[in-house]
Amino acid sequence: MLKLAVSACLLGEQIRYDKTAQRDRFITDKLGKYASFVPFCPEHLAFGTPRETIRIVQESEHKKVITVFSKNDVTEAINEAVEHELRKIQSEPICGIILKSKSPSCGLGSAKYYSGAMSEGKKDGLFAFTCKAYFVDFPIEEEARLIDPWLRENFVMQLFAYHDAMVLQENIQTMQELVSFHTAYKFLLQSKHEANYRLLGKIVANHAKKSLHVVTHEYLALFKKTIAHKGSIGKTVNVLHHMVGFFKKELSSAEKQELHLQIEAFRDEIVPLIAVMNTVEFLAKKYNTTYLLGQKFLNPYPKDLALRSVIQEGK
Ligand code: SF4
Known about the structure:
Number of strands: 8
Helix content: 40-55%
Bound molecules: iron/sulfur cluster
Oligomer: single chain
Strand content: 5-15%
Order of helices and strands: EHEHEEHEEEHEHHHHHHHH
Radius of gyration: 22 Å
Low-confidence stretches: none
Mean pLDDT: 95
Largest sheet: 4 strands, parallel
């Protein structure tokens, strides 16, 4: 089971400044089937609930935090709470962070910054900024962006892949386990970043005969960077052609034709990716192509999340 750090208000906790929640059903009901949550709320920790709203004021290089009505400087209190919440999530084996948008604490690129009374643009909130600095190449998103099916699919794929990487890191005993891991992720990595995929292959080949510890460390560092890239329709079509090439000798000409038509329909945004994937999987089962059936790209996360079922999932 995955473990995710999530803004407490998104989990339904009535912890916002006005004692309301902003429960996000995708997180609690869909991801909640496969993940447990570590809630955080720096503002509740610093000021309790209900509380006065705060805003970030940029003063040349420095930012300070003030309460909106009473104009108290609460920079120190909120910074302490941010550090505390960071330590809390650091101590858990999390594989992702989901933040609440637009909040001066949690917003990811969506927190308003002020210069005096004037808004001067949107940046990372205080906690979001701190998380990004500590958790590098890590799945971090805010709930408002996850409404976009393309971002949502990419993010969830990254979460599950990151979790697999953590499990491998924890349990690896032999080089063969690393080779098997890379083999299973071949097409998914290719769909993210072709050049990195090839570099990862070279690391696994380990011609320099480095120790398992060193190779695994190098591999997983680049793996995490690679899965942080977004896929695209073009890259996915390329991978689909590679997959077909894998068992084209077994396929009848009618099956080949059907697959190519489906890939074209996906490229032209007429059918969603799941339609093509189901056909690939069906044919891989029919011809017992175990190499393809073992590919994470076919099933990167539980099917009932249904993230590849909408045309808008591709970009
Ligand atoms: S500080 Fe973050 S977790 Fe707490 S209420 Fe605001 S947005 Fe939600």
